Amino acid sequence: MKKIKLFTLALAALFAGNAVAEEVTTGKYSVRTVNGAESVWAYDFKPTSDINIPSGVENGAYYSNTKGGNQKVSKNGYLSNKGESVIGFEVPSATAEGTISMTVGGSSDGRYYQLVVNGIAGGVNQRLWSKAGDDLEKKGPQSYTFTSADISTIDGKYYLTFKDNATEMKPATFKIVLSNDYYENLATDNATLKSITVNGKALEGFDPATETYNVELPFGTTAVPVVEAVTTSKKASAVVTPAAAIPGATTIVVTAEDGTTIKTYTINFTAAQTASSEKELLNVTIDGKAVAISENAGSLLVSKNADLTALVVNFEVSESATASIESGSTQDFTNPLSIVVTAQDKSTATYTLTVTKAEKDVLYLTTASVEGDKMYGVVAAKGFYIEVRGEKNDNTDFSGYDLVVLHESLDGKAAADGELNALATANVPVLNTKSYFYLEGRWSWGKCSNGNDQQGVKINTAKYTNIASHPLFAGLNDSITIYSTKTAKNIQPVTSFAEGKEGYVLANVAGGAAIHELPAAARVGAEGTAKYLLISLLNGQYADLTAEAETLLSNAVDYLLGANAWVPKEVPTALDNAAVAEKVQKMIVDGQLVIVKDGVMYNALGTMIGK
Questions:
Q1: Is the pLDDT reported for residue 415 higher than 60?
Q2: Which of 253, 271, 289 is the last residue of a domain?
Q3: Are residues 132 and 217 in the same domain?
Q4: What does each C-alpha distance from 581 to 460, 470, 571 come to in angstroms?
Q5: Domain check: are 51 and 159 in the same one?
Q6: Full domain range(s) for residue 97
Q7: Measured between alpha carbons, how far is residue 460 from residues 463, 508, 563 in Å?
Q8: Does residue 5 lie within any of the structural domains?
Q9: Would you state the pLDDT for residue 593?
């Protein structure tokens, strides 16, 4: 397939309204935008800053839209910059036909978008779209076969044009890899190869422009490898002539569509002169989970309920080496498993794989990646087995879990879904960082932002005399900074929480409770033992949690899994005044709480005991 040069065009971002087409000229090339009823937003598409070739992308151009501005909401309810960003490719003529392929990646703000094939002047409307979370590595190339109906004429040149059709997309970086391998029916003199494989594996270091390769085979190899090749142009042909023996050369003669352009690729095969001593155990998985190997050993932590007697182990070994067991076999991991790898020179290495049952199982409910999630790191550091799940589920049995953690990324509308609804009264400890809160046997839901730009919380000292002794605050001061940077969505105050009836407020921010505890009896019933804590972090920036926040979360996990429950002691009536309590100094004397106010000492009952 002939490679067509990518021409950079002006890029126009616009939005809806009763649209009419108008032409915007920017420099050498022209594109058309839509003049919406509300406004027009256009800017130049600069090849030096807006197109880059990412490493590892073959024959591609990197399209990155990082332009901001124009945040107002238009009358149709979408963001005003949601419209069309046009990219174009110059084609040879107005009657050109062929196939174009591209890879579409998700936007950085987590929304998905569509790339719409649609000529500026009209044409068809075929969508190549990504889903939230897709990236260039996960989303494979999508192909679109175009005809002359899709081609637009601009300034006397012919373009196949594309536009993104993002619904509600905010200004963000989004990526489109545009392959230059198009227009198979236009090629006449292309005699290059697209790929070469040797015994089914890609030829290392292959480049279509490089015609000679040297490949060393393992010691003792006598069989000539099987070589296969794919031409860049589907209308070219390739003839593979194997080497007569080892050492020897295999040739690939490629003839272009025109019948006269010829290119010859040569692979020189030799065999190593000595036997290999390589004996590595590679790419190990047990029960489908990756196992890292270090110093000839690897370990895997599994659920406390796992059956260790029948786990499938998969692995690879160094080329020409052999293993004492077969990859893909079912093994008993009740005791550590030994695998002996024997090199070609007969030297051996023994690897030990150990599978251990966790003492605790944690269900971590999140729709966000745990990569960089410090809260996940806090839980993982405890040595627990963690099941990460984000999809909606009808599960109502939590008896297999020792703790359930609710991440703030969960959909706010999910409070009534089967699993979360059942969790409201399940006898399992819950650490909740979402702005769900418990209210008379159900979850309630708070708005997802507070606009207070708050970094921290302050322990509520006004009501409970022993609140500073709560295990949650071990090693912390009365004021706790949650995030290392200020964010608009930080601590979600809960204002509908029925203190006393539903539990205890442990810490406040402006506007309401930031941390509260629900005793097991209030949520589960008289026989319940499972505690509940709400720490309403309400921010996806869990990578920015401070050391104080990590200590708070670590304390929360330990407390929820511990046997003892904190019991509040109310401030005596004489001192039950927020303005007074803020000025009260508390101390422990001989193991007893002493309250000092205006130089007078009181015990926890409010009785004066000295000056």
A1: no
A2: 271
A3: no
A4: 10, 18, 9
A5: yes
A6: 11-186
A7: 7, 6, 24
A8: no
A9: 59
Q: Above 90 in pLDDT, residue 48? A: no
How many alpha carbons lie under 13 Å from residue 352 in its C-beta half-sphere?
Answer: 7
Q: Are residues 338 and 404 in the same domain?
A: no
Q: Do 147 and 220 have their domain in common?
A: no
Alpha carbon distance 118, 125 (integer Å): 5
How far, in whole angstroms, is CA 471 from its chain's centroid? 33
pLDDT tens track for 478-537: 888 887 776 555 566 665 566 666 678 888 776 677 788 888 877 777 777 888 888 877
CA-atom Rg of the chain in angstroms: 33
Residue with tokens 């300034």: 155
Distance CA 194, CA 566 (A): 68
Q: Which two tokens stand for residue 333?
A: 């991991």
Q: What is the reported pLDDT for 398?
A: 87
Q: CB–CB of 493/598 below 8 Å?
A: no
- Per-residue pLDDT of 298-330, as tens digits, reads 999 999 999 999 999 999 999 889 999 999 999
CA–CA gap between residue 203 and residue 224 (Å, rounded): 15
- Residue partners of 223: CB distance under 8 A and separation at least 6: 246
> Same domain, yes or no, for 223 and 286?
no
Tokens in use for 171?
């200004």
| Rounded CA separation 16/73 (Å) | 11
| Judgement on whether residues 261 and 181 belong to the same structural domain of the protein | no
Strand partners, 127: 116
Is the pTM for the entire model greater than 0.70? no
Strand partners, 586: 595
Q: How far apart are CA 189 and CA 259, in angstroms?
A: 8
> C-alpha angle 133/139/140, rounded to 5°?
180
Return the closest-CA partner of residue 119 out of 148, 81, 156, 157.
148
In this structure, are 83 and 217 located in the same domain? no
CATH number of the domain that residue 501 is part of: 3.40.50.880
pLDDT, position 440: 56
Residue type, 512: G
* End-to-end CA, the chain: 94
Give the residue-averaged pLDDT of 74-100: 42
One-letter amino acid of 228: E
Q: Which residues pair with 349 in a beta bridge?
A: 341
Tokens describing residue 444: 């309630």
In a domain, 463, yes or no: yes
Query: CA 367 to CA 383: how far, in whole Å?
Result: 22
DSSP string, 395-446: ----TT-SEEEE-TTS-GGGGGSHHHHHHTT-SS-EEE-SSEEEETTEEEE-
